[in-house]
Design a protein that fits this description.
mainly alpha, homotetramer
Chain lengths: 177, 177, 177, 177
């Protein structure tokens, strides 16, 4: 959960770095996503207080840090359609993962408000919006760029999988005790 | 006014490009500035409809286009404190300029809502916030970076002055009829 | 000439900023362009010593500064094919302009080595390479991106024209004595 | 060795992305580093042919991909002094690691030219140059930035360690068979 907090926090610079490259029709939506992410961080802090968990001085795991660097580097150095692919896969995976959690979690759990947030109709609508727009972008680009979108789709899924493995199994930096 | 619309529109990618470099304490404020700018664009579109002016297909003047490129290039290639200096001077100039306009404009003018927006207490508070934070950043950096902040202060003021000269005098691209 | 020095100096960060976005087949060529530009700056400094001109503390004109910001902002926020269009037009214009100068300049002029450099077969080959690659990029992208390449083609030409107008007529910053 | 090839290849966009932020005194040196890296890639390809290893279609491991994203994201979103810290640690670690290898490798090994390259006087001089410049940058920045430089020093060392662990032990993406 503490690693999740870092990840949501890191989504803000990622989305911000997409905005200057975005078509004007995406700017309003991406711009609104930033205050939404800030509200989610506030939800984290509030739930952490209830659960007695501190969110200060969290050291990111390799996988978490790496995933965040991947988001940022994609936003800066890849085309908009390629970086948007990364955004879509990350959000889609979040939605799917929490939907699985929803099926198994006690509604009285201190973490239930998370489940509620990332399986909400609003979040589902956001993911569907991203999917429609991704399809439009994929139609508009040339063949070589579309292939790179596919590579990034797969790569983001691999990071996502590594992230959940880390969350499940614990992880330390290789070569450090 | 149409050139102003382009300029406000361009402030959005500028501020977005600052966010990944910003200290966490600035992120919430800068993140909220983006939807605020979107509301200002909506105000432009609404006033333009009232005044019968179109905001489609505006060709930026050299000075306007140049100023926007300067904002973006600063956000990407300069340090945060340097790029923040550019933000401060641009916003401060906006506040001061509209304060002068306020003194001379008829309250019934179709453009009065602009004056009201950029001389409002909210906007004044934003400019004062930027000034306090700029002072803090200037205290925290080394001497060489502080000198570059000074150079960018002056340079932004020169762009701002050129922008108002253009607005007053009309302008076309040099070498074109 | 002093403004030209600033401009050539500014081409280095522009090309550097293109490299992370470039296809691998372009990296070697763009990477070699940077030491070439450094040699050209050395030629400037050598010629300036001969002519008794100082290259210290040159203040860029609005047009020169603006053009440089446009290059940088394009490299950072536009797609590779779009930013490559800007590179091509700037280099092509350089070649064509110096070819015109060549026709009229005395071979004993202190500036003749410039003419010789930018009308050389090597430089002509570079411009032809850029043109072939630009054609390839234009074929590979989607229709919307190709249209933006066209807009940037025209915009770069407008900056280039403004640059030569400035060089011919002198220029100060608008609103400053 | 194939993962190393990918990593050296990725150092090119990293250094290129540093150039627009670099002080002018660093530009010539960083600019020359790019063709040097291209020569190193050529050495890889030549040795690979001798050893009968293919360098086509290498899939980066998580750690390798992550390290590269970390380099790029640092170059884009961190201050120059911070990103330069990352460059220094990566190069220093390369030098130290190959010095250890040198002590144990047979001079007739097909890989000995690598050892020779990265333990050469030229490479040692480069690392020493980086160290001197890093010290100068650390002196020039404010206290908060110096602290961030320290954090990046440690983080880069952690990535470097993970990279050598991966090279030693093999690695696949977590969660994939």
């Amino acid at each position: 959960m503490r690693q999740d907090y870092l990840f949501v926090e890191a989504a803000i610079p990622f989305i911000a770095a997409l905005i200057p490259k975005a078509p004007k029709s995406h700017r309003v939506v991406l711009g609104k996503a930033i205050p939404t992410l800030e509200s989610e961080l506030e939800l984290f802090r509030e739930r952490a207080r209830v659960a007695g968990v501190t969110l200060e001085d969290i050291v990111p795991t390799l996988t978490n840090h790496a995933y965040v660097q991947f988001l940022l580097a994609s936003a800066y150095s890849r085309s908009y359609a390629e970086a948007f692919t990364v955004l879509y896969v990350a959000e889609k995976a979040y939605y799917e993962s929490w939907s699985v959690v929803r099926a198994g979690i006690d509604r009285g759990s201190v973490w239930f408000p998370f489940v509620d947030n990332w399986t909400s109709e609003a979040f589902q609508g956001w993911v569907e919006y991203l999917q429609r727009e991704l399809d439009g972008l994929a139609d508009a680009v040339g063949a070589a760029e579309r292939e790179r979108m596919g590579e990034l789709f797969e790569l983001t899924a691999k990071y996502e999988l590594a992230f959940w493995e880390m969350a499940a199994g614990g992880e330390s930096w290789p070569g450090l005790a």
